[in-house]
Amino acid sequence: MRSSEPRAAARSAPTIGSVAEVAGVSRATVSRAFTRPQMLRPETVEKVRDAARRLGYVPNPAAKALSTGRFGNLAMVVPDIANPYIPPMISAVEEQADAAGFAVFLGNSAEDPAREDLLLRKLTPQVDGFVLAASRMGEDVIRRHAQARPLVLVNRDIEGIPRVLIDTAGGVAQAVEHLAGLGHRRLAYLSGPPHSWANAQRRRAVKRTGDKLGLEVVTLPARLSSHDAGRQAVGALLESGATAVVAFDDLLAQGVLAGLAERGIRVPGEFSVAGCDDVLAAQTFPPLTTVSARAREAGATAVELLTSRLGSGGGAMSDVRVMLDTTLVVRATTGPRPV
Amino acid sequence: MRSSEPRAAARSAPTIGSVAEVAGVSRATVSRAFTRPQMLRPETVEKVRDAARRLGYVPNPAAKALSTGRFGNLAMVVPDIANPYIPPMISAVEEQADAAGFAVFLGNSAEDPAREDLLLRKLTPQVDGFVLAASRMGEDVIRRHAQARPLVLVNRDIEGIPRVLIDTAGGVAQAVEHLAGLGHRRLAYLSGPPHSWANAQRRRAVKRTGDKLGLEVVTLPARLSSHDAGRQAVGALLESGATAVVAFDDLLAQGVLAGLAERGIRVPGEFSVAGCDDVLAAQTFPPLTTVSARAREAGATAVELLTSRLGSGGGAMSDVRVMLDTTLVVRATTGPRPV
DNA sequence: TTGTATGCGTTATCAC
DNA sequence: GTGATAACGCATACAA
């Protein structure tokens, strides 16, 4: 079956067989020396490891996977890698997975549910589990994938599927209270992606807290999370009569800042702006009041849930739902209501 | 060898055997229906594909890899996924790889050459090739890896290894000319990571162009590419007597803008700032004059090089070195020398 | 054009 | 404690 020339990829990499030969033992013994050393005499283990080291032997994961049905790989699928709250999460997932001995596939769905579904289908046969960040797929589709492989969701709340939720409701509520405390009476919420769990959560939190404090709350659509969308929303924002805005995320908030600056409206003197996710930190001008994100922790936690479940032989746990609290970080874009 | 319970990962996924059974053909025919349809009668192909579809058959990549020595996977390794010029590149790599039928592993070296080396070693046995962005590893180490697997570098210039270089020298030279044209006589270059090819290239371009135009050029170290590093460099910047700065990248430039704003120094009225990479677009205040990046194209090109080389049976081409030109994007942070 | 037989590198089940 | 050997799922020489 082998073509005439050596295979393209691994040309004559040492196999378990060559190690066995050099060590003067059987292939089975070599295998055991790595997977179950306690079954062997210590000196045998040493002998085998020595031979392996000399040959530069590395186990072939494809063969291992074929035999065990386990791959040593995870996949992380995200809606938009360019969104700044994603990379820290990826980074945390990668670190945590690496520490647990897993390599990580990355998939970018570009906010397209169909593409996300396809990605999962293609990745399934070579991963042990998935981390899905802010999945845009339908609940039924997610459930189907969860049946094929262990799967942990981040910022998507589906009962029965392990999930890590960054609970921005608390932080957003604090933002509303903060603005109310500064005397604002009419407040706008600038929406994010419509299918986003986070957006629904934040919108609700603004509304509820605003109602409680007797504020008027208007909700403005933005459709996308982007700088431009924020800038373009400024017109509607000013027409709404609000004196302060809570934006779905920092990108939108930054766009709003730019749009206000263009119109010569001073922040926070004439208008207050709060963001969410704390991804731009103090990088805006003025430094943005925002809600802390904990994206790194969310990623790390998701992998912990996944690997612990994989370790326990895939035994389904009861419903797991981890909430990560958030708090308001007051910087310099919020101030007293203009008089 | 199978343990009593079904394997953890793929429980009874349909195999080529089940498809063969349903379609009433041999397993070899099923295999050929997917890999070499032209060898079969069209109706046979149709019959097989039909059965496969009904069963939801997905080829097992581990078995395929074991048999062919090809994996259908690429790995992309980056120094720091949080650096905003990286995600667009990853995104492009992913798209292009996906289009060519490859899945993508992502590795984050955290700027650590040893970690990068380890990552590659662990990934090697399950990928067909690598894209290394701004690798921090030693040249000999890279060459060794390149011997094990086809490998394309981005922004790292090693003879004999295919590489895609974003040639910011041109854009940076334009920036210096632009500043000279505005009357600046003393100019600073704010450095980036010391082991970075891009940093060396940009520093040289500033120096050379400055010399040519009779400007005084001072080079300031920054060690890191970060907002804070830029802000902290402002003191040294002002002491240097320069009236304009070209920063290694936009992040540094943005930090400089913040540091200047803190001191009440107006941009571009009293000081001019230019960045590089165009990752913040118009998101700074004022919108940043910078050098275009083309990170997406670089990523896509790298994958093209890689897959074309893989397609051609791994036959080594002669030296490949793709340069992507850049140009200056003038926005609002550069202006006439203060009088 | 299609079927048969074999091997890819590993783990696991038996023997010894 | 260790050695044969049969899977795992697929691709391919070879036979028909």
Automatic annotation (TrEMBL), chains A, B:
InterPro entries: HTH_LacI, LacI/GalR-like_sensor, Lambda_DNA-bd_dom_sf, Peripla_BP_I. SMART domains: HTH_LACI. It holds the Pfam family Peripla_BP_3. Keywords: DNA-binding, Transcription, Transcription regulation. This is LacI family transcriptional regulator. It comes from Actinacidiphila acidipaludis. Residues 14-68 form the HTH lacI-type domain. The keyword Transcription applies.
